[in-house]
Amino acid sequence: MWGERLFYPKGRKYGSAAQGLRIGMPGLLCGEQVRARLRALVQRAPEVVVKVAGGGRGMRAISEHLCYISRRGALALEDERGELALGPQALKDLGQEWRLAGAEIPWLSQRREAFQLMLSMPPATDPWAVLGAARDFARGEFTRNKFAMVLHEPSTDPRSTRAHVHLVVRAQGRDGQRLRPYMADLTRWRQAFAERLMERGIAASATWRQSRGEPYRAGTPWYHYVHQQECAPWSARLGQVSVATQVAVLQAWREVASALARSEDEQDRTLAAQTLDFVRAMPLVAAREALLQQREPSHLRPSVQQPAAERGRPQSPEPARHRSWTR
Using one digit for the tens of pLDDT, what is the confidence trace for 199-222? Predict the structure, then answer.
């Protein structure tokens, strides 16, 4: 239960009920799955990247993207059947097949007819392992959709220093249902891709930033909350929600480490010690301690050495930057 809360700090919501039934919502994590993810996390395994780069609005945009990722037919595109499309004519035939597979895709459209994903790992990762993991990931997640994929290596893509796979998925499936990915779907895709990499002996992890205890980037509500900057009211509310999420994550870490420490298995107790070391080194813990020390200004805290005659005097008004967070 605590492992579930740790790796899904915001809860697992997969869009609408119909969408959740279509994609297949996973059940609760078992003990071995929690242990495997904990080991990968505390050992600082590289985080996988699954990015939705956009979507093709019409056959024109899809054809241009297929032409771009295949370097105008110089690189072979692999479809869901494992067949390769190499050369300009094969690329044109693939586009024609996509256009007529199911409802015809117009040349120009106002809605997304395809989704473009990019899956990557750090530069030292074996490119062919990344391609194999991406292939298994696509066949497991998009069983009802047509897709095409291609591997880009640093030798073939001088603008990138890491091997990555471009994956294009047709929005409408064979059953007529359209793909509508939500944020929770993206999280599940990252975890599925990481599992396919671990099956090939590649150390990989896919966790929330909150679970790793990493602070938010500059400009986000949590960043403004930590640095006590003036924000809009909606940012203040989001910042308070983020703080509640971080508190829940720290509680989950505490309970998981406590459960492992009470285990009779020596490996579990070793993992508990590694977990505590990981939590102590998290940036969130240091930032939270500094925040608690600077939360209340010194002129608002009652002083023991303050004379009794001055204790009843009215205090100076609270700065506006603090009032914005207490509304």
Answer: 888 888 888 777 787 765 555 554
Give the model confidence (pLDDT) of 101-142 as tens digits: 878 888 888 888 899 999 999 888 889 999 999 999 999 999
- Token pair belonging to 224: 């403004």
CATH label, 47-199, candidates 3.40.50.300, 3.90.550.10, 3.30.930.30, 3.90.110.10: 3.30.930.30
Instruction: Write out the residue limits of the CATH 3.30.930.30 domain(s) in the chain.
Output: 47-199
Give per-residue burial for 53-74: e unless 16+ CB within 10 Å, then b: eebbbbbebbbebbeebbeebe
Could you give phi then psi for residue 47, rounded to 5 degrees?
-85, 130
**What's the predicted TM-score (pTM) here?**
0.70
